[in-house]
Specification:
mainly alpha, 13 helices
Length: about 300
C-alpha cells in the first residue's frame, strides 16, 4: 500500500448472515450505554489491572484473544460490511480502487459511471485520449497521474493478460499504479481470494487497538495476518474500515458511542460523553447516506447521491 506518489495513485483507499436490523441501527441509536472503564483505570480488557490499579503488560496471547473478540463484535455491528466502491466486474473494481487515492469512495462512485460509459473495457481505456479521460476523472484529484496509471494498466491488461484482470497478486502488482493494497482489494472482492487491505483507516485502528505498532503497510499486513485465520482477512478489512469511517475517526473518535469501547486500550482519545459522541457518528450510523450509489441489498443506510444531485 505504499508506493511513490505517481505509482501510488492506485494505493489509497459476502456480507454477514445476520440482518442489518441487528446491526448499527440498534447499537448506534443508543440501545443502551456503552460500557465505560472505571475512573482511573484502563479499559477492562486492556493490559489487566493488578493490585493498586497498576496495569500489567498484555501478553501476546491476550492481545490475540482481544483482537479476535473485537472482530467478532464488529461482525455483529456491521453484518453488511462490504467494499464501498461501486463495481460490476473485476476491471471496474480495479479502476475504482486506483481512482480512490487521495479522495473518498463517494467521489469515485460519483465519477465512475461516466468513465465506464466512455471506456467499458481495458481495450477502450488503453486507446483513450488522455485529455478526455482527465476531464472525466478530474473530480477525484491528481487526475493527470491517475489517467497515466489507468491507461498504463489497461494497456498491460490488453497486451499481457488478454484484456482480463488477473486473479493473482504477483500479476496484479505488475500493473502500473497497482500495489499490494489495490491488489488485495481486487482479489478479496472480485475473486474471493482472502487478503488484508491496509488503508489509512485500517492502519490507524489496528495501532489504536495495539494489535501492532508498525507503520509500514506491508509490515502491518504481515502482523495482522498472523493474528487471524486467512478466511477472516477480507471481511476483517471491511469491518475495520467501516468502523474507522463511522465511529473511530482520525481526529475525534466517538468513544462514548463505540460498541467495542470496553475492548479498546485507547478509549478516551475521543469524545466519551454518549450524547456528544452520537453526534459524531457518520453514514448510516448517523442516519446519513453511505458512499455507494448502488449499495448491497442488505445495506441499512441510504444510497449516496449522484454527482451534481441535490
Amino acid at each position: 500500500m505504499s508506493e511513490g506518489r505517481n505509482s501510488a495513485v492506485g494505493e489509497q483507499a459476502a456480507s454477514g448472515a445476520k440482518k442489518a436490523t441487528k446491526g448499527p441501527a440498534r447499537r448506534a441509536g443508543g440501545a443502551g450505554p456503552v460500557k465505560k472503564p472505571k475512573a482511573g483505570q484502563e479499559p477492562a480488557t486492556t493490559p489487566g489491572a493488578g493490585p493498586k490499579g497498576k496495569a500489567k503488560p498484555e501478553s501476546h496471547l491476550a492481545m490475540v484473544r482481544r483482537a479476535r473478540r473485537i472482530n467478532r463484535e464488529l461482525a455483529e455491528v456491521y453484518p453488511y460490511a462490504h467494499p464501498e466502491l461501486d463495481f460490476r466486474n473485476p476491471f471496474e473494481l480495479l479502476v475504482a480502487t486506483v481512482l480512490s487515492a487521495q479522495t473518498t469512495d463517494l467521489r469515485v462512485n460519483q465519477t465512475t459511471p461516466a468513465l465506464f460509459a466512455a471506456y467499458p473495457t481495458p481495450e477502450d481505456m488503453a486507446a483513450a485520449v488522455p485529455e478526455e479521460m482527465e476531464e472525466i476523472i478530474r473530480p477525484t484529484g491528481f487526475f493527470r497521474a491517475k489517467t497515466k496509471s489507468l491507461m498504463g494498466l489497461s494497456t498491460a491488461l490488453r497486451d499481457n493478460f488478454g484484456g482480463e484482470v488477473p486473479g493473482r497478486l504477483a500479476d496484479l502488482v505488475t500493473l502500473p499504479g497497482v500495489g499490494r493494497k489495490t491488489a488485495n482489494v481486487v482479489l478479496g472482492n472480485a475473486f474471493g481470494v482472502p487478503g488484508i487491505t491496509v488503508d489509512t483507516h485500517f492502519g490507524r485502528l489496528v495501532r489504536r487497538w495495539k494489535w501492532t505498532d508498525q507503520e509500514d503497510p506491508e509490515k502491518v499486513e504481515a502482523e495482522i495476518a498472523a493474528i487471524f485465520p486467512k478466511s477472516e482477512w477480507t471481511m476483517l478489512s471491511h469491518r475495520v474500515v467501516f468502523h474507522g469511517r463511522r465511529i473511530c475517526h482520525a481526529r475525534k473518535p466517538a468513544c462514548g458511542a463505540c460498541p467495542i469501547a470496553p475492548l479498546c486500550p485507547s478509549y478516551g482519545e475521543g469524545e466519551t460523553d454518549p450524547e456528544k459522541a452520537r453526534k459524531l457518528l457518520k453514514y448510516e450510523m448517523g442516519g446519513q447516506p453511505g458512499q455507494r450509489l448502488s449499495p448491497p441489498p442488505d445495506y441499512p443506510g441510504k444510497p449516496a447521491p449522484a454527482l451534481g444531485a441535490g
